[in-house]
Amino acid sequence: MKNRTLTILAAIAVCAGAQALELPDIISPGAVLQQNSDARLWGWAAPGAEVTVTPSWSDTAVTAVADRKTGRWETTVATPAASYTPHTIRFQEGTETMDIDNVLVGEVWFCSGQSNMEMPLRGFGIQHIDGGGRAIAYSGRRPAIRMATVPKSASYTPQERTTGKWKVSSPENAPEFSALAYFFAESLQDIIDTPVGIITCAYGGSKVEGWMPKEMLDGYPGWDMAAEENNPDIREWERIGVMYNAMLLPVAGYTVKGFLWNQGESNVGRHDEYPYHQKDMVEHWRKLWADDSLPFYFVELPGWKYGDGEGTSAAYFRECQHKAAEITPNSGVVCTTDLVDPVEIEDIHAARKQPIGERLAFMAAARTYGNHYVPNIYPRFESADLQGDKAVIKIANAHGGLNPNRQLQGFEVAGDDKVFYPATAEENWDTFEITVTAPEEVKEIKSVRYCFKNFAIGTLKDMMGQPLIPFRTDDWADGESTSHLRKSL
C-alpha cells in the first residue's frame, strides 16, 4: 500500500511539473511571416515532448522536440510566396492543440532605435506627427499591415520572453504604432504590393551600446556594463546592454527581411567611435538572425539644438553616420536635413515622419527588392577647388543639377582663423558645379561647409527631390572651428 501511494504521489508531481504548450507573443494571431523563407517558430512545452507544427498552406507537418531541461523547442516552416490570403498554423503536443489564425505571408522588417523610432502615430505629449491623425483615420484600409511592438524594458541578464502581440492596422490599433515604421510599411506596400509586418523594438534615449551584448561592450574602452549596474544615478534608458537583454533577445531570430534603425541622439559627442560600434552591432545582429546578408537601413540624425544650434557636435555625428554606412556591407542611410522646421530647434522629435518612412521604403525597394529606378541615391560632396576668395565645389550624384539653382542657402566659408561666415553660392547650369564666394572677412578660403551645424535646414535637392548630404571640405576636429554668429554671442 505504501509503495502504491508513493507511485501515485510521484505521478501527481510529474503532472504538476509538466509545462503546457506555450507560444511567445511574437507568434500570435495576426502575425506576418516572411515569404519564401524557412520561417523560424519556437515555444515551450513539456520537457522532452514532441511538438507538431502544421501550416494551412502545406500538407506537410514539421516536428520539434522540447529541450529536456527547459522545455523550449524550435523549428522552421517553409513559407509560400506572399499573398493576402489569411492562413492558420496549428501547434500540437499530444492531445493539446493551439491554433494561430489570420496569419499572412509577406515581408517582415525589424525596426529599432530610440525615441524617433518609438514615437507613435498619436505623437508624444505636445509633440505631434504630421499626417498622424489622417494615417490613423484611414488605417483600416490597410489590414495587411501588421505591427508587433516590444514593450520598453531593461535587464542586466539575458531574457527569453517578452510581451507584444501582433496588431492589425485599424483606427483602434494604429495610434500606438510607430509612426516611422508605419509610414515605411505603407510606402513599401504601395511599391511591392504585399502584406508588410513590422516588429518595433525601440527605447527612447537608448544608446547604440544599449543594444549590444556585454561580451562585446567589455571590449570597448570607457564602457563598463558591470559598473553601470551598481550605479543608481544612471537612468534606465541610458544604461548599456540592457535593451539587448530584455527586448532584443526574446524576439531575435524571428525571420525578417531586414533591419531599420533610427538612433543616435544619445551618442552625440562620441562620433569617432560610433561608426565602428554600429558596424559591430549590425554584424552581431546578423549572426543572431543567422543571415549575414540582411540589409540595415538607417536614418540620419535630425536637426536639433544639441545644446547649441550653431554648434557642430551633431554635424560631426551625422558625418560619422555616413561613414558607418560606408564601412558596413549592405547598409544605407537616408538623409533628412530638409525635413525639419525652424521651430524644431527646440524639439528633438521631428514631426515629419512620413517622408522619412517613405525614403526608407524607397531605399529598400531599390536595394533589397530590385526596383532600381526608385530614387534612393543622395547627391553628395565630391571635391573642392579652393581658389583664394572663391571655391568650386563638385557634387556627385547630381544628375540634372540641384534645385533651387539661384541664391543657394546654407554655405559657409572660413579662412586660417577657422571662423565660419555665411557665403554666397551659385550653381553653374552647364557643369552643375557650385561656385562659393567669400565675404569680406575671408580673404582666402580654407574650408567650405554646407549645413554643417547642429541645426540647419537643407534646401538643395536633386531632380528627384533627394537632399544634398551636409558636408565640409576640411579635416578640422570638432571644437577647432566656430561660426561668426556663435562667436559673437
Task: Tell me about this structure.
This protein starts with a helix and ends with a helix. Mean pLDDT is 94; it is low at 1-17. It is elongated, with a radius of gyration of 26 Å. It has 489 residues and is of the alpha/beta class. The strands form 4 sheets. Strands 1, 3, 4, 6, 7, 8, 9, 10, 11, 12 and 13 form an 11-stranded mixed beta sheet that branches. It has a 5-stranded mixed beta sheet with strand order 21-20-16-17-22. Strands 14-15-19-18 form a 4-stranded antiparallel beta sheet, with no helix packed on it. The relative contact order is 0.10. It has helices at residues 2-17, 115-118, 132-138, 179-192, 214-217, 225-229, 242-248, 274-288, 313-327, 353-367, 484-488; strands at residues 32-34, 38-44, 50-55, 62-65, 72-78, 83-93, 96-113, 145-149, 166-168, 196-202, 258-262, 296-299, 331-334, 380-387, 390-396, 411-414, 419-422, 424-427, 434-437, 447-450, 471-472, 482-483. Helix 4 (179-192) crosses helix 10 (353-367). It is built from 11 helices and 22 strands. It is 22% helix and 25% strand.
